Amino acid sequence: MAGKIDARLAELKIELPQAAVPVANYVPVVIAGNTAYVSGQVTVWNGEFKFIGKVGQEFSTEQAAQAARICGLNVIAQLKNALGDLDRVKRVCKLGVFVNCVDGFTEQPKVANGVSDLMVEVFGDAGKHARSAVGVNVLPLNVAVEVDAIIELA
Asked: Which InterPro entries does the record associate with it (predicted)?
């Protein structure tokens, strides 16, 4: 039987991608006590990399917010894969949003809104979180955005 978060995803017509398999020596999710730490998720959708390039050069702020949303969908997919039941998510505590951007780009918070809005859409008040939005000079595979997460579990 689908839980309330799965039902919410269906209601919102939100499809989750397949949880990506790690390509290096790490795990996608570590659960320690009642906390899940989700490794950085990039702009991959079912094995296909999207949004390759720099924000402020190849991509606008609005496009980068869409990229951040994809990262967030990957965070949720990793949680579902690790937990089995998304109803175990008690609170999205913190998101780290890394933006591959040109020098002088200052709209990282607007990019991060793409994933922040998604978490509130899906988890309601439990999706409201602290966050960091940081500009970097490059990300793995030159993706535009990467997001990691700290989640409290019920």
From this structure: Endoribo_LPSP/chorism_mut-like, RutC-like_sf
